[in-house]
User: What shape does this take?
Amino acid sequence: MKDAIGVVPGLAVILVGDKKDSATYVRNKKKACESAGINSFEVRLPEESTEQEVLNAISAFNDDASVHGILVQLPLPSHMNEQNILNAVTIEKDVDGFHPLNSGRLAMRGREPLFVPCTPKGCIELLHRYGVEIKGKRAVVIGRSNIVGMPAALLLQREDATVSVVHSRTKNPEEITRQADIIISAVGQPNMVKGSWIKPGAVIIDVGINPVEDETSP
Ligand SMILES: NC(=O)C1=CN([C@@H]2O[C@H](COP(=O)(O)OP(=O)(O)OC[C@H]3O[C@@H](n4cnc5c(N)ncnc54)[C@H](OP(=O)(O)O)[C@@H]3O)[C@@H](O)[C@H]2O)C=CC1
Ligand SMILES: Nc1nc(=O)c2c([nH]1)NC[C@@H]1CN(c3ccc(C(=O)N[C@@H](CCC(=O)O)C(=O)O)cc3)C=[N+]21
Assistant: This one.
């Protein structure tokens, strides 16, 4: 990195509590940083920490010139206000793209976010790399979370797809999904989309990570 751009970028991760999968994701990010020549910084706080302690950690990284990106691993413990915490990350270092100013810019025509949430961005990248045309196509996003579904729908719309969003209150998800040329599914429960929901030839990306019991596995 230093040879390419003259500085060694720094990524700071704040992990609150000891959720197993969160710890795995954070470990993977650290490894990815090492292989890409990025310095990684990590703050681990106990589950019982106060919101103020998390805000203090963010503030220190906001002021640290060797840190260029700040990730607050989600979900946070339920006693913390996620909005307050995500608002505290300076938008120039909001590499997750979760600050409302970055989400707002993503939603507005003629505006550019400084950062776009990585998973939806990865979905669009997959479509591009596989040569899937997006422009003018009907796309359905299943799920509307701030971190995947909503930004995925906005990105598809920016690529000139006609987008529908299916969520838990949608009355006829099967009928809507069957019209799609492109489906991005981001739901926290397994086996939601059935074969009969998919138009032959449609392209589908499943973002969900949902463990299921496998009786045939020893
Ligand atoms: N591969 C990756 O990089 C990533 C994967 N994930 C995985 O993606 C999945 C979704 O994550 P996330 O978006 O954070 O989850 P959330 O729980 O925040 O959102 C789930 C969404 O699914 C919708 N939903 C739930 N049940 C139904 C249903 N029966 N029919 C239609 N819609 C439904 C919810 O609707 P409503 O809004 O109405 O409640 C909500 O919008 C998870 O499995 C997660 O582990 C997440 C992040 C990154
Ligand atoms: N602030 C914040 N930013 C996030 O980006 C964020 C988050 N919080 N909270 C949780 C979700 C989930 N998420 C994943 C990232 C990579 C894989 C991934 O690479 N999965 C590997 C397997 C990983 C493994 O389980 O070993 C795979 O699907 O092949 C999965 C999920 C990011 N999230």
About this structure: Residues 119, 142-145, 147-149, 166-170, 173, 186-189, 192, 207-210 surround NDP (ligand 1) (CB under 6 Å). The chain has a mean pLDDT of 96. The CA atoms of residues 18 and 124 lie 31 Å apart. The radius of gyration is 19 Å.
